[in-house]
């Protein structure tokens, strides 16, 4: 069986085009996580707060970030896909975030093959409402979990996302290569 974190390439042309492995679905409260030992997507928990994922959320293969997890990616989609789906995506922004004192940034991407996102190339192409909704979700989704606290720290452009992806690839190679 294919291990989507270890066996799948980071993308067809990283950092400009990446693969995103979907764990959590737009509009849902279920927090799925890819378990490389299964390998497969398992239900980690149901979000304690009454919020739902603003879009499909998962990780970038062959990446490892400063929080000691695969690098997180939120892919803006019109309709949810499914846990384990692999989306070819273009990073357009980086949302800086602190999760319980750890740097836990998120790449924001759009599907490469969805013409509705052809004009979304960089952070300034995202509407303020979209950025606000994403920030609000990540600031509040752990509020009702005892002892958990998150804070979004601002938005950066696609070049920052590219740099962060390359950093995550380097960390992956350093730890697992």
Automatic annotation (TrEMBL):
Spell out the subcellular localization from the entry.
Cytoplasm
Q: Which Pfam families match?
A: Pyrophosphatase
Locate the residues binding Mg(2+) 2. Answer: 72
Top-level taxonomic group = Archaea
Q: Looking at the keywords, is Membrane present?
A: no
Catalyzed reaction equations = diphosphate + H2O = 2 phosphate + H(+)
Q: Which InterPro entries match?
A: Pyrophosphatase, Pyrophosphatase_sf
Its GO CC terms are: cytoplasm
Q: Which UniProt keywords apply?
A: Cytoplasm, Hydrolase, Magnesium, Metal-binding
Q: Using the UniProt record, give the first listed, main subcellular location.
A: cytoplasm
Its EC number is 3.6.1.1
Q: Which residues make up the binding site for Mg(2+) 1?
A: 67, 72, 104
Question: GO molecular-function annotation terms?
Answer: inorganic diphosphate phosphatase activity; magnesium ion binding
Coiled-coil region: none
Chain sites annotated for binding substrate: 31, 45, 57, 141
Q: Does the keyword Hydrolase apply?
A: yes
Cofactor(s) demanded: Mg(2+)
Question: What exactly does this protein do?
Answer: Catalyzes the hydrolysis of inorganic pyrophosphate (PPi) forming two phosphate ions.
- Family as reported in the entry's similarity comment: Belongs to the PPase family.
**Binding partners and assembly:** Homohexamer.
Which PANTHER family does the UniProt entry name for this protein?
Answer: INORGANIC PYROPHOSPHATASE
Q: What is this protein called?
A: Inorganic pyrophosphatase
Species this chain originates from:
Halovenus salina
Gene symbol? ppa
